[in-house]
Amino acid sequence: MFDEEIEKIVLFYMIFKQVDFDVDANDFVNERNKKIIVAINELKVEEEEISILGIAGKIKGNNTAIIQYIADLGEYIFGMSEDTAYRKLIEYSKKRKIYELIERRKADILSAENMDNLIEKIIKELTEIEKRSEKSRTFLEQVINAMGEIENNYNRRSDFSLYTGLLDLDNILLGLHKQELTIIGARPGVGKTTMALQIGEHIARKGLNVGIISLEMSEEQLIQKMIARIGQVNSYKLRAGTLEDSDFERIASICGDLKDLPFQIMSKVRTIQEIEVKARNLKNEKKLDLLIIDYIQLIKNARKFNNREQEVADISRTLKLLSLELEIPIVGLCQLNRNATRNEPTLADLRESGAIEQDADNVIFLYQEEGQEEEKAPTVIAKVAKQRAGDVGKIKLRFNKANSEFVSLIG
Asked: What's the average pLDDT block by block, 10 residues per block, for the chain (411 residues)?
């Protein structure tokens, strides 16, 4: 699982073309090539020139033989570009590391009592192999990257693909954002699943891949909610089966429309470890741009904790880190404490863990003002209680519960 000529070509580009590849001795197999790359990296750390004599001076042994070996490296180029040589070297390196990982883990697989924990460890090791280590950047480089991000934001100012579709809410949030964890918290029956589903469908219609992990409702139940909203069909009629012919015609048309959406509902996932595995697989297949989880307190953890608060804290932190790693927005629904039933919710009402408040980039609370429970379409307050990169505020939405729909109210 290596190619000695590829190793020599990479060394040639580093020595004679001064190409700064991010490689170390573990990426090479040939012992002499290993010694040369170690010498090159030492010269880089010392900020010395990468030269034949400098490398020979770092290697113990016959200097004449080392110098001649390096001088002959150019014979192996044969028109191969630096990018191709580097890519091939890293691919061989990854193959060897994955093979070694499998060999190391064989005994663990046979003796494992908790496969979820083992899968999580293996996935993390594979992720490290995939990512490659990043070189630390100077402050100047960080400033330049920040300026580049500002320019990218400017160039994407007309890109509304991650906007929620609820205009008043988007005026505050400017849509969802990659690498951010957004929490939607509410008491039961106020519409947090409806809102998440509506946002997910809106974003899927922009061509982005949306995944929903549902730990509370089945795939069929969620799709029925989508049908009720899109077709303005009373959800009670769908459940009771009291549909008319005209309803069936409309539903058939809606199903034809929905089947082509880049939308995936998963209701068999139960642990945070399974969520990590599923999300990484979808991302690797380029099939995940937004992940929605309904809801956080129903997620289990394969690891053992002293109490539920610690368990939820670990789940919350894992979701935040997953959003950073996969560079996607994650929306997690959250049940609120009973204290929030009659009062305006606060961050303290996030049930079972204050860590959710700390890990979340954005927190949105949904609640009804007193006296509206009996209305057919009550006004629901959406309170942006936290936004790490922006303002907080409140908006009013009309919640058409019968049709599983939120509608913006201007003013």
From this structure: 87 89 91 93 90 89 86 72 85 89 85 79 79 57 77 77 92 93 92 94 94 91 87 76 77 83 90 88 89 91 84 90 91 84 80 78 89 68 93 92 84 48
pTM (2 d.p.): 0.68
Domain shared by 142 and 190, yes or no: no
Using DSSP bridges, classify how beta strands 379-387 and 263-266 pair: parallel, antiparallel or unpaired: unpaired
SS3 395: strand
Assess contact for 89 and 23: CB atoms under 8 A: yes
Its domain, for residue 126, covers 112-158
Residues 42 and 184 reside in one and the same domain: no
What letter would DSSP give residue 229?
A: H
Phi, psi angles (nearest 5°) of residue 32: -70, -40
Cα–Cα dist 100/383, whole Å: 51
Contacts of 102 (CB under 8 A, 6+ apart): none
Strands (E), 253-361: 263-266, 290-294, 330-335
Closest CA to 87 of 19, 18, 15: 19
